[in-house]
Specification:
It is built from 17 helices and 17 strands. By secondary structure, it is of the alpha/beta class. It folds into three domains: 5-57, Orthogonal Bundle (3-methyladenine DNA Glycosylase II, Chain A, domain 3), CATH 1.10.15; 64-314, Dihydropteroate synthase-like (TIM Barrel, Alpha-Beta Barrel), CATH 3.20.20.20; 327-444, Rossmann fold, CATH 3.40.50. Helix 1 (5-11) packs across helix 2 (25-33), helix 7 packs parallel to helix 8 (191-201) and helix 15 (387-397) packs across helix 16.
C-alpha cells in the first residue's frame, strides 16, 4: 500500500535544504506521495529510507530503457492522465516492423527509411526509434541470422525481438544481448521460459495477455520472479477495445496505484489494418492515448512526419515554451561580410525569422539569444531581451571572430533598446530592422557591410 505524504515526511532528513527543487521536505514528501517527484532528487536521504520509500517514490508507471548508451529509448515514467496537469515524461517509441520471411531487399528498404527519414523542427531532429524483428518462420537459425545481419546497421536504434516461441526468441536474444532489446512476448503458456531469457541477458520483457485480467496475473507472477522491466500488450486489435484498454491501464496505474498494470504499453497499428493511412491514424491515437511503443508496418514520409510532430507537441512541457538553443546560426553559407541579425529563442520566432532570411537569398548570421522561450516583445517586457543581456551575449558568442564589420540588426519591436545597446557594444553599430519578419527580405536588399 502506498505511503501518505506525512508517512514519507517522517523518513526524510527534514533539512529543508531545497536542493531537491522543492522549498521544504514536507512539500517534497507530498510530491512523492502524489507520484510527481523522484526520491533520487533528495541528496541527503539515508539508504535505509531509500529502501523503505522505494514504492512510494517510484512513478506509477515504471520507467525503463530499450537499448544502450545515450541513444537508448526511455519509455514509461508517467505521473499524470492529462498533459495540462503537469506534463508527459517520455515520448512513445515509434518502430518499423521487419520479419524473417521478408526478402533482403524489403529488409534493406525499411532499414534505409529508419535511418534516412529524419526531420528538423524547432532545433530538434525527429525520427523513428526502433526496429521490430518478428520471427514468422519459426526457424531459430533464420531468425538469429536476420538479427545478426541488421544489428550492425542500426546506428544506435533500439531493437524489439518478436516471437512467442522461446527457442526462436532465445536464438535472437543471444545474438544481440549487448544491445538490451525488448523481448516480445511472454504469454500464459510460455511465461517461465521467457522470463528465463530476459533474466539471462538483463533485457526488458513484453507481456501479452488475452485480457486485462490475464495480463494482471502474468505481471504479478513475473514481478514476483524478480522481473521489473515489463511492457504490456492487452492483445486488443480493434480500435475501440485497444483504445479502452490503454485508458483503463493508465487509470488503474495512476489513479488506483494498481502496480500490476503500472508499466508502459506496446501497441500494434500494423496488425489492426492493411490500409497505410488508417494505420497512421490509429498510430496517432496511440501517441496521444497512451502507447509507450507504436509499431508500424512501414515508414513513409507523408505519414511518419505528422506522427513525429504530434509526438513532439504532446510531449513538450506545456509550462515551458518551445525554445531553440542559444547560439550562432548560419543561414545560406554566410561569410565575413554577411549581415548579423539577432532574435529571441522562441521557436516560432526563430523559424519565421530564419525562413524569411533564407527566402531573401542573402547569406546571413542569425544570433539566437536565450529568452526562456519568450517572443521578442514578451522577452523585452520581462527583462530577458534588453541591452544588458544582449551586449554580453554578443561579446561572448564569438560572432566578432566571424565578421569584419561591426553592424548588428535588432528586431524593430526592440528599437527602444538601440541606444543602450550601443553603450554596451561601443564598437558596434546597432541597426533597427523591420518590425515584421515578412519585411526582412526587402530590408536585407539594402545591406552593405562597409
Amino acid at each position: 500500500m502506498a505511503l501518505t505524504g506525512i508517512e514519507i515526511f517522517k523518513k526524510l532528513p527534514k533539512t529543508n535544504c531545497a536542493e531537491c527543487g522543492v522549498p521544504t521536505c514536507l512539500a517534497f514528501a507530498m510530491k512523492l506521495a502524489a507520484g510527481q517527484a523522484e526520491l533520487a532528487a533528495c541528496p541527503h536521504v539515508s539508504e535505509q529510507a531509500k529502501a523503505e520509500l522505494e514504492e512510494a517514490s517510484a512513478p506509477p508507471i515504471r520507467p525503463l530503457s530499450i537499448g544502450v548508451g545515450e541513444k537508448a529509448l526511455k519509455i514509461g515514467g508517467e505521473t499524470v492522465m492529462f498533459r495540462h496537469e503537469k506534463r508527459f515524461v517520455n515520448p512513445p517509441g515509434i518502430a518499423v516492423l521487419v520479419t524473417d520471411k521478408m526478402n533482403e531487399a524489403e529488409v534493406e528498404e525499411r532499414l534505409k527509411k529508419l535511418k534516412e527519414l529524419k526531420y528538423e523542427r524547432v532545433g530538434l531532429f525527429l525520427q523513428a526509434d526502433l526496429l521490430a524483428i518478428r520471427g514468422e518462420s519459426g526457424d531459430p537459425g533464420k531468425f538469429e541470422a536476420l538479427v545478426k545481419k541488421v544489428k550492425e546497421k542500426l546506428e544506435g536504434k533500439g531493437l524489439i525481438l518478436m516471437s512467442e516461441d522461446p527457442k526462436v526468441l532465445s536464438a535472437g536474444a543471444k545474438a544481440c544481448a549487448e544491445l538490451k532489446p525488448l523481448l516480445y512476448a511472454a504469454t500464459k503458456d510460455n511465461a517461465e521460459a521467457m522470463a528465463g531469457i530476459a533474466k539471462e541477458i538483463s533485457a526488458p520483457l513484453a507481456v501479452k495477455g488475452k485480457s486485462l485480467d490475464e495480463l494482471t496475473e502474468l505481471t504479478t507472477k513475473l514481478t514476483a520472479a524478480g522481473l521489473k522491466d515489463l511492457v504490456l500488450d492487452s492483445s486488443a486489435r480493434t480500435t475501440r477495445q485497444a483504445f479502452e484498454d490503454q485508458i483503463i491501464m493508465r487509470r488503474a496505474a495512476l489513479l488506483k496505484k494498481f502496480r500490476p498494470l503500472g508499466f508502459p504499453t506496446i501497441t500494434f497499428p500494423c496488425e489492426m489494418t492493411d490500409d497505410q493511412m488508417k494505420e497512421a491514424l490509429l498510430a496517432s491515437m496511440f501517441v496521444a492515448k497512451y502507447g509507450g511503443i507504436v509499431v508500424l508496418s512501414n515508414l513513409e514520409g507523408h505519414s511518419l512526419f505528422p506522427l513525429l510532430v504530434e509526438r513532439l507537441n504532446i510531449f513538450t512541457d506545456p509550462q515551458r515554451p518551445m525554445a531553440t538553443t542559444q547560439g550562432i546560426y548560419e543561414i545560406g553559407g554566410p561569410n565575413e561580410n554577411s549581415p548579423v541579425l539577432i532574435t529571441s529563442n522562441f521557436s516560432l520566432t526563430y523559424f519565421i525569422v530564419s525562413g524569411e532570411i533564407e527566402g531573401s537569398r542573402m547569406p546571413s548570421w542569425l544570433l539566437v539569444k536565450d529568452t526562456e522561450g519568450l517572443s521578442v516583445m514578451t522577452a523585452w517586457a520581462a527583462g530577458k531581451f534588453g541591452a544588458d543581456v544582449i551586449g554580453p551575449f554578443v561579446k561572448k558568442c564569438g560572432i566578432a571572430d566571424k565578421v569584419k564589420h561591426r553592424k548588428l540588426i535588432i528586431p524593430g519591436y526592440a528599437a527602444v533598446i538601440s541606444g543602450e545597446l550601443e553603450e554596451e557594444l561601443p564598437d558596434w553599430k546597432v541597426m533597427i530592422g523591420p518590425r515584421e519578419a515578412g519585411h526582412i527580405p526587402a530590408f536585407l536588399k539594402m545591406w552593405k557591410a562597409e
